[in-house]
């Protein structure tokens, strides 16, 4: 559930007939192979919140970076290791759960200047397509909704591996990143600095550190 890479590469499914008349580089891109171990991961998964982080970082006053995370969210994940294009993710975040480590700053973020939680309590990501970019890297495109504004984003998603934990749960790890312009979602509040620049950067990096557990139902 990119946040996000803008790279454009080929889908992994390969039809040999499509190679007619294409260059060697194009044919190689079309023949990118998936790790066979990924096929065993096909199925439904849920983000394990105590071992995951849905976070963000943003430049503050031009000289430092503020980091935060959202603690309360629901997730629905489906991963298809044989056909990544069938993979999908839904993530619904309760924005009031934002935590930057400073109560006054968190109160400002959920107020009307930023998220306006009273009117827009949730932030939502719903995937629309998934492409294997090679190796253990995927690109998941989806719709991100903040303050009732929905815009497409691309999430670079790296598979970190899978393991059977001591409690018998099957886990898979993914890292996702993207950078968005918050003003495109109506988050336009700012203050100008006397020396030039702004108090809060318009660019926000979204970070998804995911430990997913296979669903048994």
Describe the structure.
The chain is mainly β. It is 7% helix and 47% strand. It contains two helices and eleven strands, in the order αββββββαβββββ. An eight-stranded antiparallel beta barrel has the order 1-4-5-7-8-9-10-11. The longest helix has 8 residues, at 103-110. The radius of gyration is 19 Å and the shape is elongated.
Features:
217 residues, mainly beta, 8-stranded antiparallel beta barrel, 2 helices, 7% helix, elongated, disordered N terminus, Lipid/polyisoprenoid-bd_YceI, YceI family protein, TTHA0802/YceI-like_sf
Query: Which strand-content bin applies to the residues?
Result: over 45%
Spans of at least 5 consecutive residues with low confidence: 1-31
Give the strand order, joined by hyphens, for the main sheet.
Answer: 1-4-5-7-8-9-10-11
Class based on secondary structure composition and strand pairing: mainly beta
Instruction: Enumerate how many helices there are, as a single number.
Output: 2
Could you give the count of β-strands?
Answer: 11
Overview in brief:
The protein has 217 residues and is mainly beta.
Secondary structure elements and pairings:
Elements: H1 24-30, E1 43-47, E2 53-60, E3 64-70, E4 73-79, E5 88-94, E6 98-99, H2 103-110, E7 122-134, E8 137-146, E9 149-164, E10 170-181, E11 200-214
Antiparallel strand pairs: 1-4, 1-11, 2-3, 2-11, 3-6, 4-5, 5-7, 7-8, 8-9, 9-10, 10-11
